[in-house]
Amino acid sequence: MTIDRLAEEISRKNAPVVVGLDPNLTLIPEFIKRKAYAEFGESLEGAAEAVWQFNKAIVDATADLIPAVKPQIAMYEQFGIPGLEVFKRTTQYCQEKGLLVIGDVKRGDIGSTSAAYAAAHLGQVKIGSKTFAPFDEDFATVNPYLGSDGVKPFTDVCQACGKGIFVLVKTSNPSSGEFQDREVDGRPLYELVGQKVDEWGAGLIGKCGYSAVGAVVGATYPEMGRVLRKVMPKAFILVPGYGAQGGKAEDLKVFFNPDGLGAIINSSRGIIAAWKKEPYAHFGEEGFADASRQAVKDMIADINSHR
Amino acid sequence: MTIDRLAEEISRKNAPVVVGLDPNLTLIPEFIKRKAYAEFGESLEGAAEAVWQFNKAIVDATADLIPAVKPQIAMYEQFGIPGLEVFKRTTQYCQEKGLLVIGDVKRGDIGSTSAAYAAAHLGQVKIGSKTFAPFDEDFATVNPYLGSDGVKPFTDVCQACGKGIFVLVKTSNPSSGEFQDREVDGRPLYELVGQKVDEWGAGLIGKCGYSAVGAVVGATYPEMGRVLRKVMPKAFILVPGYGAQGGKAEDLKVFFNPDGLGAIINSSRGIIAAWKKEPYAHFGEEGFADASRQAVKDMIADINSHR
């Protein structure tokens, strides 16, 4: 099960950290874009090539330090088919480097439609007498708004293929409370979703003691994280919002279980765009990948000092 | 605005009906798959070619009768990159035939990520000095679980590009009530989401009197549809669940405003797989597109007799 590999790799590298590969063009150094546009034109293909070269350099510079990456598919989808080709190429490349890939796809639909998404991202499709794994991520993020019958096709594929999901429970954005925090039977909706995460994962516990059904809970809401940690003791928590969105390391302790496991903290812009920010500006534009490596080391140290 | 075109085309064709292009391989006649596999192999490319030929025949047979189609992107995503190429090709082909395209993508994320999805599906991306519209649907469906700041990037693009969205409010599946029906301040969550739909669309009212921000409400829940119709008087309601999922025409009246407008009813399997079902079986496998045409005519008559 990929959840066992994730737990192992976090322990082995002593790094409960995932790098978000969310390459907006504004985060990519000019010299990379120039070269890509020279070869492929100012086109979707040119943008996708720039994303690919950028990703590859960052992955090469950080793969030995981290257990996983989290490509945000929206950043690839915005470049159409060529962008999605690079999403797939990035996924494969990271897996070849021994990294686990959390596809941040936030899919979710009903019945046969969720089954199609689950096949696309985690499972296989049967075509005639053959089977194919179209995107083949190790984990995918899932939106729970449609309820259990929208999530079950994903857990079915987790069962069949040993993969995992992270269900959105409490997201890191400012207006996440608009619906997620509303009180239902005396407690907030996100707690109810958290309880369902616990239920959905009950039959999918790995050797590591954690379930294939994890949860997304934003670093920006540590008090809620503290409660949710207890509501879903077997769920790995994927925590976005550290760094650029304002989440601080001292707030992250609550997302871990007493054994120091059970959470993985994401940083996207804080790592991949480190070269644009003060403490790493001396690496220069050409040194963007080295800047990312240093930012990953600093992030790991920061988080480990508080768990 | 695409919402004005949608209202016009519904009136002109007297058909508040959208055909869901959700081509699972099991719904596609054997002779189409055989030909596609002979040419492209039992491969993602072969499956995508079968989907394309199937879609094209159904669109050719029904385009004069209907205002819009709703391709469900999951059914294309399950065939990887070749599948997504056919999603795009289908979108373009339908638009060339004068149809509006509702991309059933159920995307939704936070801030810059939602902006990337909105650019991908409805808007444009800037690459160097050029702009591109990657998928360029006329409408997209949006998941509201992340709240207003996840939806705003979509409404910004609606404003800028004249496009529209349909926000999931009350979905048609059996377990949709698990979260959507939970009582919040004395009324169900879906009503709160419905009220937000009304607010999000307030600045985006078209000449037709309807807003660019519509809602998805399942045909399987007519009593809730009756309430939601009043909560969101300016929202066009996209109604899935007619036919295969059990929604009946007599239950659909509540989704329309007193003027007989403001709703569009989707059927997917009931139309595209009509050839497999009793009343249309006499068309035979080779006559699948003619079966779809007859099923569309019957659906329009059925719905118009009750609105």
Structural key phrases:
homodimer, 307 residues, alpha/beta, eight-stranded parallel barrel, two-stranded antiparallel sheet, 12 strands, 44% helix
Tell me the fraction of residues in β-strands of chain A, as a range. 15-25%
Biggest interface pair, residues each?
A-B, 72 and 72 residues
Class inferred from helices and paired strands of chain A = alpha/beta
Work out the helicity level of chain A.
40-55%
**What characteristic shape of chain A results from the CA principal axes?**
globular
Q: What is the H/E string of chain A?
A: HEHHEHHEHEEEHEHEEHEHEEHH
What number is the mean pLDDT of chain A? Answer: 97
Distance between the termini of chain A: 25 Å
Quaternary form: homodimer
- Radius of gyration based on Cα positions of chain A: 19 Å
| Largest sheet, strands/sense/barrel of chain A | 8 strands, parallel, barrel
Number of strand elements of chain A: 12
Low-confidence stretches of chain A: none
Structure description:
The structure is a homodimer of 307-residue chains. Helices cover 44% and strands 17% of the residues of chain A. Chain A has 307 residues and is of the alpha/beta class. The first copy, chain A, has an 8-stranded parallel beta barrel with strand order 1-2-3-6-7-10-11-12, surrounded by 7 helices. In chain A, β8 (183-184) and β9 form a beta hairpin. In chain A, α2 (30-40) crosses α3 (44-62), α3 runs parallel beside α5 and α3 crosses α12 (288-304). Chain A is globular. The two termini of chain A are 25 Å apart.
